[in-house]
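Entry:
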Amino acid sequence: MADTSPAHRVRDRPQLSDEAAAYGRELIMSGQVRPGEYVRVERIAADLDISITPAREGLMALRGEGFVELAPRKGFAVSTLRRQDVRDIAFAQGVLAGELAARAARNLAPATLAEIERVQESIERDAGSDRPERIDELNYLFHREIYLAADAPKLTWMIDTATKYTPRRFHAVIPGWNRIAVEDHRVVLAALRTRDPEAARAAMNDHMAHSGTLLVEHLEGRGFWAAQDA
C-alpha cells in the first residue's frame, strides 16, 4: 500500500513541483505558448496528472526565474522573450560550456574519453531513428561526462541552470538538432582526443551558438514573435 502520510506527501511535493516547472519551461521554450499567452495551472496539472498545488508551485518557480508573470485574477502569462534574449542565453551557455570543455581537455582520463566516445557512437547510430527521446538522453550524457571531467562543480551548476532555457526534448521539437549533435560533437571530441583546451573551448562554444540559432529559427517558424513583430 502506498504511503499517504503527510510526511510522505511533503517529500513528494518538491519533485512534482520541479516536474511542473520543467514542463512549463518546455511549453514556453519550444514555442507551444507565446509571450503574453497564459500557462494555465489546470493544464499543467492535467497534462502531468498531478494536483493543482504542485502545478501552481512549479509556475511560481518559473515566475522567480523570469519565464512568466503573475497577473492578478488572470493567472500566469508568458514573459517577453526576444530573439536577442535567446541568442544571449546561447552565448552564456557557450562561455560556460566552453570553459568546462577546455578544463576537461586538460583533465580527461582515458576511461572517461572512452565513455564519451561510446556515447557519441550511440548518438551517430541512433540519429536517424524515430526515438528522439533516446538522442536527448545520449546528448545529456555526452555533455555530462565532459562537465564532470572538468572538475568545476560551481561552473557545472551554472551550466545546469542556463540549460533550463533549452527544451528538454530538443531533438523531438527542433528540426536539424540531430545533425549538429553528430557534426558538432565530432569536433568537440577531436579536440578532447588531442587534449587541446582552446580547440575544445572553441568547438563547444560554436556548438552552443548553433543550438541557439536553431532554437530561434524554430520559434520563428511557430510564430513565437508574430504579435511582437506586428
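Confidence is low (pLDDT under 50) at residues 1-13.
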